C-alpha cells in the first residue's frame, strides 16, 4: 500500500484543481505520439498522424486524451485503493489493447512536462517529486493485472 | 536520429537560456534528487541541501558538458569521448540509458518551467532525442 503524506495529497489536489482535463489530456497524448512516434502503433484507426500539426489537431487524439486524463482523475480520487480501481482497466490494456506497460511510464513523464510548461514556476521541485510518485503508482496499478 | 530541424531547435532552445545555465543545472539536479532519491547514492560526499555550493558547481559542470555536446551535434561520440570514459571506468553510474532518463526528465521540466508554451511538442521531441543520443554515447564503453 502506498503511503501519501498530507503534504503530497495537498500538492496533488492543488495542481489537479487547476487542470483543464480536456486540454491537458489532449496535449499529453499528442506529445506522446509526437515525441515517441512508435506509440502510434496503438492508434491505427485515428486517421492523420503524419505530422505534429496533424496530431495536435486530430479530433480523435483530443477525445482520447480527454478520456485518458479523466480516468487519471479517478485514480486521484482513489489513491488509497488504486489497484482495485484500475483492475478492469489493467485487464483491458493487457488482454484487449496489448499495450506494453512501459508506455504508461512514458505517458506519465510527458504529463509531468505538460504540467511544468503550464504551471511554470508553481510546478516546484516538491510538486514534481509528488507527481512523479503519482504517475509511477498509476502506471504500476495499470500494469498490475498483466499476465 | 537527430534531423537538421531537431538540431536547429536544440540550438535555439539553448540560445534562449542566455546565461541562466548555472541555475538550470542546479535546479535540474535538485529536482532529480527530490523526485528520484536513489540518485543521491552517487553523491555521498556532497552537501545535498538546496542551493549547496556542490550542487551548483556540479550542475554547472553538467550543463557545460551539454553545451559542448550541442556545439558538436554532428560528432557527439568524439565530443563526449572523455566523459564517456569517465562514466564507464570511473563513475560507473547505472548505465546512462537508465539514469540519464531521470536527468533528462528533470532537465526538461526545468526547461519547460522557464519556457512555458515555448517548450512546444517539436522542441520537446528534439530535446528528448538529444538527451537519448547523449546517453547512448556515455554508455558506449560500459562493456
Mind sketching the topology for me?
The complex is a heterodimer of chains A (147) and B (143).
Chain A (H helix, E strand, L loop, with lengths): L5 H11 L4 H15 L16 H6 L1 H19 L4 H4 L1 H10 L5 H18 L5 H19 L4
Chain B lengths: L3 H13 L4 H15 L17 H19 L4 H4 L1 H11 L4 H20 L5 H19 L4
Keywords, separated by commas or semicolons:
heterodimer, A: 147 residues, mainly alpha, Globin-like, B: 143 residues, globular, organic acid binding (chain A), metal ion binding (chain A), Globin (chain A), transport (chain A)
Sheet with the most strands, sense and barrel status of chain B: none
Which consecutive residue ranges of chain B, at least 5 long each, have pLDDT under 50?
A: none
Q: How would you name the CATH homologous superfamily of chain B?
A: Globins
* CATH second-level architecture of chain A: Orthogonal Bundle
Pairing-aware structural class of the strands and helices of chain B?
mainly alpha
GO biological process, one term (chain B): hydrogen peroxide catabolic process
Organism (chain B): Dasyornis broadbenti
Family (chain B): Belongs to the globin family.
Subunit structure (chain B): Heterotetramer of two alpha-D chains and two beta chains.
Can you put this structure into words, describing what you see?
The complex is a heterodimer of chains A (about 150) and B (about 140). Chain A is mainly α and about 150 residues long. Chain A has one domain: Globin-like (Orthogonal Bundle), CATH 1.10.490. In chain A, about 70% of the residues lie in helices and about 0% in strands. Chain A is built from eight helices and no strands. Chain A has helices spanning about 5-15, 20-35, 50-55, 60-75, 80-85, 85-95, 100-120, 125-145. In chain A, helix 1 (about 5-15) crosses helix 8 (about 125-145), helix 2 (about 20-35) crosses helix 4 (about 60-75) and helix 7 runs antiparallel to helix 8 (about 125-145). Chain A starts with 5 loop residues before the first helix and ends with a helix. Chain B has about 140 residues and is mostly helical. Chain B has a single domain (about 5-140), classed as Orthogonal Bundle (Globin-like). In chain B, about 70% of the residues lie in helices and about 0% in strands. Chain B contains seven helices and no strands. Classes of the chains: A mainly alpha (about 150), B mainly alpha (about 140). The interface of A and B includes residues 35, 120, 125 and 133 of A.
Amino acid at each position: 500500500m502506498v503511503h501519501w503524506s498530507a503534504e503530497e495529497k495537498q500538492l496533488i489536489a492543488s495542481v489537479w484543481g487547476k487542470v483543464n482535463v480536456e486540454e491537458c489530456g489532449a496535449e499529453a497524448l499528442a506529445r506522446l505520439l509526437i515525441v515517441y512516434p512508435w506509440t502510434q502503433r496503438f492508434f491505427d484507426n485515428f486517421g492523420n498522424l503524419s505530422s505534429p500539426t496533424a496530431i495536435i489537431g486530430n479530433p480523435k487524439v483530443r477525445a482520447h486524451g480527454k478520456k485518458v486524463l479523466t480516468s487519471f482523475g479517478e485514480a486521484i480520487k482513489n489513491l488509497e485503493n488504486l489497484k482495485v480501481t484500475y483492475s478492469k482497466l489493467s485487464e483491458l490494456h493487457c488482454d484487449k489493447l496489448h499495450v506494453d506497460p512501459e508506455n504508461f511510464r512514458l505517458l506519465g513523464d510527458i504529463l509531468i512536462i505538460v504540467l511544468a510548461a503550464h504551471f511554470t514556476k508553481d510546478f516546484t521541485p516538491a510538486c514534481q517529486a509528488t507527481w512523479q510518485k503519482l504517475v509511477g503508482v498509476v502506471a504500476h496499478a495499470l500494469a498490475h493485472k498483466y499476465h | 536520429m537527430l534531423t537538421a530541424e531537431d538540431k536547429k531547435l536544440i540550438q535555439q532552445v539553448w540560445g534562449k537560456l542566455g546565461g541562466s545555465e548555472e541555475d538550470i543545472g542546479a535546479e535540474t539536479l535538485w529536482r532529480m534528487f527530490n523526485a528520484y532519491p536513489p540518485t543521491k547514492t552517487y553523491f555521498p560526499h556532497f552537501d545535498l541541501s538546496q542551493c549547496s555550493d556542490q550542487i551548483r558547481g556540479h550542475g554547472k559542470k553538467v550543463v557545460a558538458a551539454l553545451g559542448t555536446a550541442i556545439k558538436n551535434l554532428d560528432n557527439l561520440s568524439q565530443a563526449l569521448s572523455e566523459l564517456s570514459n569517465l562514466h564507464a571506468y570511473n563513475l560507473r553510474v547505472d548505465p546512462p540509458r537508465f539514469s540519464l532518463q531521470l536527468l533528462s526528465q528533470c532537465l526538461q521540466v526545468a526547461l519547460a518551467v522557464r519556457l512555458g508554451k515555448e517548450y512546444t511538442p517539436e522542441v520537446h521531441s528534439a530535446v528528448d532525442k538529444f538527451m537519448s543520443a547523449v546517453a547512448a554515447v556515455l554508455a558506449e564503453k560500459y562493456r
